């Protein structure tokens, strides 16, 4: 059986670190903790699990810190997590099985990353990341912000899921401001941004409400024609969001349609186009797009997955659209499909009462 080093970078994670390490301590043979300047009890908590704790002076570069952590690993494979991630019990079992059966010919293992959840705890937003890599391959982290692990060779796609559990007290805006500041300092130094930098800088601008500037950088990114296809699709979707905030519906539609140039329409694109028709009362055309959101198979897609756009949301909208064109049976059928996913949702409960009062199935 191959042995595994867990490598983490941390800073002021006293609220979440213990739950993270508890969930993986029995799965890893070595735990490496690299602290980038904690002022709380992070190091004390880490010492409950390992003595391999190292300091790293923060230089506004996440990849530098992660590569330093990887350099301290001594086992066959390296596994990485963030302090606000955990492995649920079911995924711990899957990980243990993966470890027992791992073929040494595997260079990297990708795992699902669930980062948002509905009220019942079901994942609503997820994507894949390479989480376990062969140490001998010496794979490196790339990018000062929104870093990624550059891997190659034999990559295994597993069904193990990492669950993101952010602390209630954590401040996402603070972290996001930090990222934006790092990008802007790099620009002031005259650095040339890679296509990936352009995309993620545009994301930071959008998240801070700087929509016009975000549009400028999304367009710069798309003009390079050198981005990852999933990022190009997301750039178009984010462009549409920026234009919507600015009240430019024509450009919003144009951006959504542009995304189709890169691949089949993503469910989110289809639903948003459906929404635009539905808002205008053009229900038959809206139906086409909502149905497409349900029909496209994206099981092999590596990009972000917001599950609502391929499950309950298009069913909910089809329920409304079919009712407006007099197709009451179909309307009721789609209501029942939406209810399977989110039975306690206020909109779906409203429709449930509506159908009880206004529709009787023969």
Description of the structure:
About 1% of the residues have low confidence. This protein is an alpha/beta fold and 362 residues long. It folds into two domains: 161 residues, Spore Coat Polysaccharide Biosynthesis Protein SpsA, Chain A (Alpha-Beta Complex), CATH 3.90.550; 185 residues, Alpha Horseshoe (Serine Threonine Protein Phosphatase 5, Tetratricopeptide repeat). The radius of gyration is 23 Å and the shape is globular. The chain has 14 helices and eleven strands. Strands 1, 2, 3, 4, 5, 6, 7, 10 and 11 form a nine-stranded mixed β-sheet that branches. A two-stranded antiparallel ribbon has the order 8-9.
Head-to-tail CA distance between termini: 62 Å
> What coarse outline follows from CA principal-axis ratios?
globular
CATH fold assignment of the largest domain: Serine Threonine Protein Phosphatase 5, Tetratricopeptide repeat
Which radius of gyration do the C-alpha atoms yield? 23 Å
What's the gist of this structure?
This protein is an alpha/beta fold and 362 residues long. 48% of the residues lie in helices and 17% in strands.
Core attributes:
362 residues, alpha/beta, Spore Coat Polysaccharide Biosynthesis Protein SpsA, Chain A, Serine Threonine Protein Phosphatase 5, Tetratricopeptide repeat, 2 domains, nine-stranded mixed β-sheet, two-stranded antiparallel sheet, 14 helices, 11 strands, 48% helix, globular
